Structure to design on (266 residues):
């Protein structure tokens, strides 16, 4: 738990323990994103470039050939919660 | 056909709900529609569309990704056989799921949303109206709760819903629009 102090500076000061926990150091650039009651502190890479949605592609690697897996076969029409029963 | 069917090349809406089938198709490297979904993500990069991903979709996507990876790594065993014998098998895949979730949840053009308590009752009404099973009923209630009428999915179940538009690259759905 930390207490917020508001100032006119554009720097974000955080306790050293928290910086270690978050792997942040002096000079790092971060972006704050709010999601309801959750505030996400996201580190921006050196180039500071905006993220592309295409970075989401292929995050889960596979040894199978590209385009070879029909995902719908794994998304049982009756909902995945029934799969255990259907495979028993 | 009550729902409007759109190909992934058509003009994008202001808001778009991502179904789990879309998430898995772009996140899993070997998925059948990976290329098409990648191209849609590139278009979304250029558009002003805000995308919405619900915790329901993440839940489904995580589970499907787990199945895909576990069956790939333990071929020819089935997912449940591996999992029931060795539940800790999931540990080695959580980094992958975390990476997908972090990238989705922190992107400025994507909103991560949850279900609202009152959506339970609306979900039941969707089950009555469209004969949906609970998960699809909750997806629709969550969309409506956020005023979203467009979704990207490979799932034909939503075709029965009037007033929504369904973006897809699934040939079996697209052929129903002609």
């Amino acid at each position: 738990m930390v207490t917020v102090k508001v100032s006119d500076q554009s720097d974000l000061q955080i306790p050293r323990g928290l910086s270690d926990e978050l792997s942040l150091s002096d000079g790092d650039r971060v972006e704050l994103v709010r999601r309801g009651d959750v505030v996400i502190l996201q580190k921006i890479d050196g180039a500071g470039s905006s993220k592309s949605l295409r970075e989401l592609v292929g995050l889960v690697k596979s040894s199978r050939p590209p385009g070879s897996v029909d995902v719908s076969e794994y998304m049982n029409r009756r909902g995945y919660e029934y799969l255990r029963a259907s495979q028993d | 056909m009550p729902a409007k069917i759109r190909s992934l090349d058509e003009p994008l809406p202001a808001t778009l709900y991502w179904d789990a089938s879309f998430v898995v198709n772009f996140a899993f490297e070997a998925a059948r529609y990976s290329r098409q979904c990648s191209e849609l993500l590139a278009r979304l990069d250029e558009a002003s569309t805000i995308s919405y991903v619900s915790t329901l979709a993440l839940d489904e996507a995580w589970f499907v990704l787990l199945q895909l990876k576990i069956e790939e790594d333990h071929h020819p065993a089935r997912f449940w056989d591996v999992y029931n014998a060795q539940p800790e098998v999931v540990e080695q895949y959580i980094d992958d799921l975390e990476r997908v979730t972090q990238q989705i949840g922190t992107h400025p053009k994507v909103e991560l949303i949850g279900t609202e308590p009152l959506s339970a009752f609306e979900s039941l009404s969707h089950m009555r109206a469209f004969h949906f099973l609970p998960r699809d009923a909750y997806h629709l209630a969550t969309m409506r709760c956020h005023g979203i009428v467009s979704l990207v999915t490979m799932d034909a179940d939503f075709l029965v819903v009037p007033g929504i538009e369904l973006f897809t690259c699934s040939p079996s759905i697209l052929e129903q629009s002609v």
Summary: DSSP finds eight helices and six strands in chain B. The domain at 4-171 of chain B is CATH 3.40.50.1010 (Rossmann fold). The first helix of chain B runs from residue 20 to 27.
